[in-house]
Amino acid sequence: MDMDELFAKRPQDPLTLLVKQDLDPLSVNELKDRVAILEAEIARVNRKIEGSVNFRASAEGLFKR
């Protein structure tokens, strides 16, 4: 599945709007700021994923006893 297919399902989703935003008017500094913000968001999402995986593993361990 390519990105156009994925984002076509949710055209007003903030992530879809972000990905489709024209980057041409942005300065180099604005682009660097954007990258820093996106990297911070990626780290936040990864922490959420890790927490969810750990929670699930703990729950599964509890019920296997």
Structure notes:
The chain has 65 residues and is mainly α. The protein contains three helices and no strands. The longest helix is centred in the C-terminal third of the chain and has 37 residues, at 28-64. The termini are far apart.
Write the SSE topology.
Blueprint: H1 3-8, H2 14-20, H3 28-64
Features:
mainly alpha; about 0% strand
Indicate the radius of gyration in whole angstroms. 18 Å
Run of helices and strands? HHH
The largest pleated sheet is described as:
none
Distance N to C terminus: 40 Å
Shape: elongated
For the secondary structure, the number of strands is 0
Low-confidence parts:
none
SS-derived structural category: mainly alpha
Report the β-strand fraction as a percent range.
under 5%
| Percent helix | over 70%
The total of helices stands at 3
Question: What is the residue-mean pLDDT, rounded to a whole number?
Answer: 86
Provide a compact summary of the structure.
77% of the residues lie in helices and 0% in strands.
